[in-house]
Amino acid sequence: MTSTALAFLSAGFGAGLAVVGAGLGIGRLAAAALDGTARQPTATGDIRTTMIISAALIEGVTLFAIVVCVLLAIKV
Amino acid sequence: MTTLLASLFLAVATTQYAPAPAEHQATAPQHEATAAPAPAEHGQQAADAHGAAPGAHGSAHGEAAGHGEGHSLSDVMLHHVSDGYVLEFPWVCDGGFKWDCEVDLQHVFGDSLVFGSLDMTPTKHLIMMWLASIVLLVVVLGSTRKRSLVPHGVYNFVEVLVQFVRVEICRNNIGQKYGDRYVPYLVSVFFFILFVNLFGLLPWAATATGNIAVTAALALFTFVITQYAAIKAMGLGGWLKHLTGGVAVWLWPIMIPVEILGLFTKPFALTVRLFANMIAGHIVILSLIGLIFAIGSPFVALGSVPMALAIFGLELFVGFVQAYIFTMLSSLFIGQGIQHAEHAHHEEHGHEHGDNGSHVAGHSPSHG
Fold first, then answer.
1. Which chain A residues are within 8 Å of B321, Cβ to Cβ?
2. What does the buried/exposed string (b/e) look like for B167-199 if buried means 16 or more CB atoms within 10 Å of the residue's CB?
3. Is the pLDDT of residue B56 over 50?
4. Are B270 and B323 in contact (CB under 8 A)?
5. Do the chains contact at A11 and B9, CB–CB below 8 Å?
6. Phi, psi for B297 (deg, rounded to 5)
7. Whole-complex ipTM
8. CATH dotted code for A3-74
9. What residue ranges do the domains of chain B occupy?
10. For chain A, which residues make up each domain, given as ranges?
11. Which end of chain A is more exposed for a tag (fewer CB within 10 A), N or C?
């Protein structure tokens, strides 16, 4: 396989793996947030804020991987 | 968002080698025939999305086709997202109203701003950043002209945001004592990122924070201010001592480079987080619209345009959230730098200033 083909292949794999990571992480986050809200409905506001911040941070890490994949797919 | 991005990314990567020109030329006349002069390339913002959509893509495509044959889908997408010297906007040029008049900034400035190998000619992102900054200054300064105890209108809204940054972000993370010193910087950063992000969602505008140089500059400011706060609290010697990490002298050659590198990971993360969030949103929207061209059938628009609208709403939200996250993390780093110093002082001097509200257990309440 040429290096171009390998780069595209790895970009695809990388994007998929990044999505798996984000999905798992944010899924667990949402589950914990729902648990907490169920246990203590009065804390819903605080939990929601923390959840959104944490989701943005996890998404940020995922996007590091996406940036690398985009570099692979474009700089080739 | 990342799911969509990943899946459509593969579609784009493969269509780069698809017989793009023939396919696009065939569908372009079809689209333009059904078009009303509708807002253009970024045009998902139109309320009449469905009716305007084929026209929007027709004009986006006509523009790409007019530039030169063989423009693949990924080329068009990259062109919309990256920086360049060509400004496009609807205006009167070439003897009539056109939806995409072009101004080549290199032609406007020529070589007057090229100093050797340093080319300081303004680019598209720079002009957009200036425009967003002007809008920000006009809105904020204009609305707070008459200082009153009970604000009305836009003044009220601005004050709510400033108060939010000052209390929730600054005082919580940096502490009562030193918080107010860093409020101007944090408020500036928050409003700047917010306005630039939102400005990039307007038609014909670009997101300046989608340029890694801009986000790197913002992270550099945060870095400088964080180290300044740490040095001010610990003294230069104390700060240097922190760089050694408290190990034995013979480990210093290993420890100091590692610690210096560690200093840079946080600003690097700030840079890439903001940059990637802004770029990813735009690329997803462009991919969804580009899917119409990649598949070739106009019926794809029925599913593609509503999804692009939804992602556009998400982009609005992400613009706010990323401004908040950048500001919060900046304040967190500044607070950490100062609290390291407070720890060191406490070990030496005992409890001199124990009234720092956020000093309980050595961590700020909203830590993590």
1. 52-53, 56
2. ebbbbbbbbebbbeebbebbbebbbbbbbbbbb
3. no
4. no
5. yes
6. -105, 135
7. 0.85
8. 1.20.20.10
9. 2-86, 87-122, 125-362
10. 3-74
11. N
